Amino acid sequence: VEVTSLREARELRGTSVDRILIDNMTTDETAAVVLEVSEWPDPRPELEASGNMSLDRVRRVAETGVDWISVGALTHSARWVDLSLDLAATP
């Protein structure tokens, strides 16, 4: 389940959600969600941080205690090369 605020994360307490996607939150907001969920009874959902994630931010976000981090910059900001493949039928 995707959440964009601590309030939305709190609404999931007591549900059977397996993973919470913390989307477009600051590092401090992410840390607050991690702290909130850490106080829930087991089994706790896994936490994934995503949105506005840069390679410069990954360490700080990881230090909040999330289980997963999605970094779109690995694909949408990567350098690309234009390749083509020509196939010829063999006689």
Report on this model:
With 91 residues, the chain is an alpha/beta fold. Helices cover 29% and strands 15% of the residues. The chain is built from 4 helices and 4 strands. The chain has helices spanning 6-10, 27-38, 58-62, 73-76; strands at 2-3, 19-23, 46-50, 68-69. It has a 4-stranded parallel sheet with strand order 1-2-3-4. Strand 3, helix 3 (58-62) and strand 4 form a beta-alpha-beta unit. The protein is elongated.
Strand order of the main beta sheet, please? 1-2-3-4
- What is the tally of beta strands? 4
Secondary structure category: alpha/beta
> How big is the Rg?
19 Å
Terminal CA distance reads 55 Å
Q: What fraction, in percent, of the residue positions are helical? A: 25-40%
Q: What overall geometry do the principal axes of the alpha carbons give?
A: elongated
Question: What is the string of SSEs from the N terminus onward?
Answer: EHEHEHEH
Question: What is the overall number of helices?
Answer: 4
Q: What do the pLDDT scores average to?
A: 92
Strand content: 15-25%
Unreliable stretches (pLDDT < 50, length at least 5) are none
| Largest sheet features | 4 strands, parallel
